[in-house]
């Protein structure tokens, strides 16, 4: 009978190689090399076919409404359609403004009812925030809403999964104008947005800020001259047969 001996160093190296391979496979999977990841992510941007230059201009509405006429005028001038993420309380406070936005052909989307951080809520509270906002929107527009952006961009797996199970498409952004910051000049906002926008981008603005209404036409003029067309979120994203990679980019399957 033959007796096999195993060199301890060889055994250790072999086990190390196996462990390294397993770790590499896990790393590749988590980085979406295999088209999958372990997190529930919102949509940050959309992967579009070559030469498709669509983008989405979006506004988060949570405070005043005095600048909305100027914003709508700029959007109309450049034939841009946008998505306005509004609070349920904002819809109740400014129903005529919401109707004006909707009648101009823009999309009204859910930004929660009262702007609570969703990761601080339990399931019942989170669903209540989503549902009450949807109801407030429908009371004004008569339309159901399936597009949702969390307050503060705050989310985790639980928030995204709960919203998706409630029939909502959860939307973030890949271009942040930072228009809400006091130290951001008009030129800084312009340069930031125009330099970062690419096909499939979702751009975040806010209304009722210092410079948004003034810099918006300059940005739209530049983006239009670069061949971009702004469409509502619901026209940009894929509704079925898609996956979202680890960077939050939505792809068609």
Strand and helix layout:
Layout: H1 8-30, E1 45-46, E2 54-61, H2 68-77, E3 82-86, H3 88-93, H4 95-103, E4 107-110, H5 123-141, E5 147-148, H6 157-165, E6 169-170, E7 175-176, H7 186-196, E8 202-206, H8 212-225, E9 229-230, H9 233-236, E10 242-244, E11 249-252
Helix pairs in contact: 2-8, 5-6, 7-8
Compute the number of structural domains: 1
User: Would you tell me the structural class of the helices and strands?
Assistant: alpha/beta
Give the CATH H-level superfamily. Answer: Glycoside hydrolase/deacetylase
- And the CATH topology? TIM Barrel
Largest sheet: 6 strands, parallel
The poorly predicted ranges are 1-36
What's the gyration radius in Å? Answer: 23 Å
N/C terminus separation: 58 Å
Helix/strand order, N-terminal first: HEEHEHHEHEHEEHEHEHEE
CATH architecture: Alpha-Beta Barrel
Shape: globular
Helix count equals 9
Descriptive overview:
The protein is α/β, with parallel strands linked by helices. It has one domain (45-252): Glycoside hydrolase/deacetylase (TIM Barrel, Alpha-Beta Barrel). Helices cover 42% and strands 15% of the residues. The chain contains nine helices and eleven strands. The chain has helices spanning 8-30, 68-77, 88-93, 95-103, 123-141, 157-165, 186-196, 212-225, 233-236; strands spanning 45-46, 54-61, 82-86, 107-110, 147-148, 169-170, 175-176, 202-206, 229-230, 242-244, 249-252. α7 (186-196) links the parallel β7 and β8. α5 crosses α6 and α7 runs parallel beside α8 (212-225). The chain is globular and about 45 Å long.
């Amino acid at each position: 009978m033959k007796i096999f001996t195993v060199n301890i160093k060889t055994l250790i190296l072999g086990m190390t190689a196996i462990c390294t391979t397993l770790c590499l496979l896990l790393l590749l999977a988590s980085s979406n090399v295999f088209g999958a990841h372990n997190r529930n992510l919102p949509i940050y941007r959309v992967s579009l076919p070559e030469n498709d230059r669509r983008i989405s201009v979006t506004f988060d509405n949570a405070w005043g409404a005095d600048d909305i006429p100027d914003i709508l005028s700029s959007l109309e001038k450049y034939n841009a359609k946008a998505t306005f993420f509004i609070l349920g309380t904002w819809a109740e406070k400014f129903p005529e403004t919401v109707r004006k936005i909707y009648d101009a052909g823009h999309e009204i989307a859910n930004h929660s009812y009262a702007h609570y951080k969703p990761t601080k809520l339990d399931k019942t509270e989170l669903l209540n925030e989503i549902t009450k906002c949807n109801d407030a929107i429908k009371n004004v527009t008569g339309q159901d809403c399936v597009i949702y952006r969390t307050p503060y961009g705050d989310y985790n797996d639980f928030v995204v999964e709960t919203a998706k199970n409630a029939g909502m498409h959860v939307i973030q952004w890949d271009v942040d104008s930072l228009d809400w910051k006091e130290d951001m000049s008009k030129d800084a906002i312009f340069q930031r947005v125009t330099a970062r926008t690419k096909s499939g981008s979702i751009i975040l603005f806010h209304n009722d800020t210092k410079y948004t209404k003034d810099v918006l036409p300059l940005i739209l003029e530049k983006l239009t001259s670069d061949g971009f067309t702004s469409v509502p979120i619901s026209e940009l994203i894929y509704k079925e047969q898609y996956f979202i990679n680890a960077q939050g980019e939505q792809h068609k399957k």
